[in-house]
Amino acid sequence: MNTDKFCMEKTKLIQIIACLAIVILFWIVPPVEPMTTVGMKVIGVFIATVLLLSLVDTVWPAMLALVLLSRTGVTTLNTAISGSFGSWIIYFVLMSFIMTYALNESGFTTRLVAKFMSLKFVSKSPWIFTFSLGALGMLLGCFMDQVPAASFMLSFCSKIYQELGYDKKDSYPNIANIVTIFGVNIGGAMTPISHSLIILGLGIYEGATGKAISLFTYLAYGVPTGILLFILMAIMIRLFAKPDMSKFKNFNIENVINKQNPMDLKEKTTVFIFFATVVMWMLPGIMNMFVGSSSFVKALNSYGITFWAILSVVLMSVISINEKPIIDVADIVNKKINWAILIFISIGVYLGSAVSDKATGVTDFIGEKIVPLTSGVSPMIIVLIITFITLFLTNFASNVTTITVMTGVGVALALSGKSIDPVAIALTTTLCGSCAFVCPSSFATVAMLHGDDYSNRSKIFKYGIAMLIVTTLIVTFVSYNISSMML
């Protein structure tokens, strides 16, 4: 007869005990002025939570963090709950997930692939075709969550390899997979549309400064940066990769693209509502360029981006075609939403604002103790270091954790008097925190790339590390400088 007993994996138990020991240590160690006792306790909770989320679990540590923060003196439990899971950011991400699901269900994503891959220029040469796969992945990554985009593209590419007659050990599929998934991840870093990581970074900045970064501002930063990164990736792959492309001789893309029927009313309506919402997200930023802070722009800003996202979901739920609504929102919420991700993001947003709270003294500590260490150091060198650390961490560990930590550090350093633009550095750490290329532990899409039968891990590491270096240089010396001049 089996006897039940309390038992846990030894490594996990040690990790949990070590993290709780960190909390205890920071709660009993005297603070270093101007940091306060409250600040020491919050820092302890911050470090322990980041480690628990990275090493142990992605849900319950976020819940524990709320309880611990409520005992630090920086907040109450109800306020912490309201500021985390009750934040507008979480509701916006939820609405974005529903909108993206509706777009996929309508068949528009599949139609977009068929249309793009049937363009004449795509089949002009094997290299053009390969980079077109990456460009398609980037396009999908711009408008939908990277994980379903990566899953769709890997499946689509698999059909192509089979039609071409490539074996899983052949070099061409290895390179094509890298180009495609790197394209998806670059696209995901380019826009805040349906991308919770970007919203997380923007939320941390808002929590620390009390000011918001518009979606248009992020697009003005992210889109040119992403396009430049994709072009440089393509050039690098073209120069150094030597795959066997001989099997393209008699290849016909029509063999792997399903014939598309005309768009039905449901698909047309879904697409219209989705992209009309995207336009309303960007319109205030665009209008501000031409008419400044006019009453019309102020009126648009008063609605906020969540208003249009909610309205979009409501419209899709109410508008019925053949007596059926476009989406069954109850079914989506109950069965299709990853609530663990929402909880994970919620504590990431709130931890940043808790650390930056005046009661902690953390900002004053950075100003008095850390900023002087950078005296005589060029602001661009500081930006370079922050950019590299962000990219390094996000390529080997959790990107949510990286964005939470590095955006908080970057903004705090900028606000402490160093001549670093706080908006530009927040944009930089947010984009870089979304650029994962190297390890499976960095992001689900990279794990999918490593696990695909047509992938070669050594090549992924080789080109992934190269992209880490390229991204560091481009974001630091091009994107940051341009954004700081524009803002």
TrEMBL record:
Pfam families, per database record: CitMHS (PF03600)
Domain of life from the UniProt record: Bacteria
Cellular component terms (Gene Ontology): plasma membrane
Entries under InterPro entries matching the protein: Cit_transptr-like_dom (IPR004680)
Domain Citrate transporter-like: 51-429
Membrane topology: Multi-pass membrane protein
Keyword Transmembrane annotated: yes
Transmembrane segments: 12-30, 42-69, 81-103, 127-154, 175-198, 218-241, 271-291, 303-321, 337-356, 376-393, 400-417, 423-448, 460-482
Record localization: Membrane
Annotated keywords: Membrane, Transmembrane, Transmembrane helix, Transport
Family stated for the protein in its record: Belongs to the SLC13A/DASS transporter (TC 2.A.47) family. NADC subfamily.
Protein's recorded name: Sodium:sulfate symporter transmembrane region
